[in-house]
UniProtKB/TrEMBL annotation:
<keyword id="KW-0489">Methyltransferase</keyword>
<dbReference type="InterPro" id="IPR013216">
    <property type="entry name" value="Methyltransf_11"/>
</dbReference>
<protein>
    <submittedName>
        <fullName>Methyltransferase</fullName>
    </submittedName>
</protein>
<dbReference type="GO" id="GO:0032259">
    <property type="term" value="P:methylation"/>
</dbReference>
<feature type="domain" description="Methyltransferase type 11">
    <location>
        <begin position="40"/>
        <end position="137"/>
    </location>
</feature>
<dbReference type="GO" id="GO:0008168">
    <property type="term" value="F:methyltransferase activity"/>
</dbReference>
<dbReference type="InterPro" id="IPR029063">
    <property type="entry name" value="SAM-dependent_MTases_sf"/>
</dbReference>
<keyword id="KW-0808">Transferase</keyword>
<dbReference type="Pfam" id="PF08241">
    <property type="entry name" value="Methyltransf_11"/>
</dbReference>
Length: 266
């Protein structure tokens, strides 16, 4: 896949593992796949969420779908300590899934933002679920990002980041559309839940940790952003300096919401 904003370099593959570990306490409390033994994981990347799922649900049997061969290779390494009978990774485009089996659960996390036709992914998942099968989705809502103090370098970088995502055919606010997408595919009992972070100096350690994480997330797109001509190296440095300053600022605020959705196939 050509235009993936984060790229497929080793540093980015390691970032996905760190991201899953760090955000798991925010994502998984709302996910309940207990008793759902045949589960489809869509856009499984380097297996970062797969690891969490295998830890949380020792009985689970996962079919992971990933488009990019280098992500699959890395996932095989990351998952080598888990029983191979419990997961398999299939290289397919999630917009056009063709699997022989039906599943009683599906899990999608941080994928639809990168996809030009997210409705096709949800339709595909719908077609591969058994009746009363459940889907859980967690996706970005980048316009929700608010912070204090004002940071011009971060603002310029973030703007370019989201613009490039859109130019690449993705949608940095796809989280907002999850309910409508699920309804159009035929899902029922749809529930939506905003989740995320509202950090300030009342939790300085957590604030610092999140700002460090955010810096890595932003930086993962630096090469693509520079190549696109949207920013230069100075904007990367300014973004990093702004985030460092934000973590120290006595009035610092860091606010970001993602959206989770849960729905059933009738
Ligand atoms: C940000 S990563 C998230 C990976 C994993 N879900 C996680 O949270 O660690 C998005 C992944 O979706 C994959 N992807 C993007 N479009 C896809 C498609 N059409 N079909 C299958 N995988 C896709 C990318 O290759 C990438 O590995």
């Amino acid at each position: 896949m050509g235009n993936y904003i984060h790229g497929y370099l080793t540093g980015e593959q390691d970032r996905l593992l760190e991201q899953a570990g760090m955000l798991a306490p925010l994502i998984y409390p709302w996910v309940d796949l207990a008793g759902r033994n045949k589960v489809l994981e869509v856009g499984s990347g380097v297996g970062a969420q797969t690891k969490v799922l295998l830890e949380l649900y020792p009985e689970i049997n996962l079919t992971c779908i990933e488009l990019e061969a280098s992500q699959i290779e890395k996932a095989q390494v990351n998952l080598q300590n888990y029983p191979s009978s419990q997961f398999r990774i299939i290289q397919q485009d999630a917009q056009n899934l063709a699997l022989e089996e039906k599943y009683d659960g599906a899990f999608i996390c941080w994928v639809l933002e990168h996809v030009s036709e997210p409705q096709l992914v949800i339709d595909s998942v719908f077609n591969h679920l058994s009746p009363r099968g459940i889907v859980y989705i967690t996706e970005v809502f980048n316009s929700s990002f608010h912070y204090f103090p004002q940071c011009d370098g971060l603002a310029a970088y973030y703007n370019a980041f989201n613009e490039l995502q859109k130019e690449n055919g993705g949608n940095p606010d796809i989280g907002l559309q999850l309910g409508n997408l699920l309804k159009k595919s035929g899902f029922e009992n749809i529930e939506l839940k905003p989740g995320g972070l509202h950090l300030d100096q009342s939790q300085p350690a957590l604030l610092k940790q999140m700002v460090e994480y955010w810096k890595k997330l932003m930086k993962s797109a630096a090469e693509e952003l520079i190549l696109s001509g949207k920013i230069d190296q100075a904007t990367v440095k300014a973004m990093e300096a702004d985030l460092d300053q934000l973590a120290q600022h006595p009035e610092a605020v860091f606010f970001y919401q993602f959206i989770q959705a849960k729905a059933f196939k009738p």
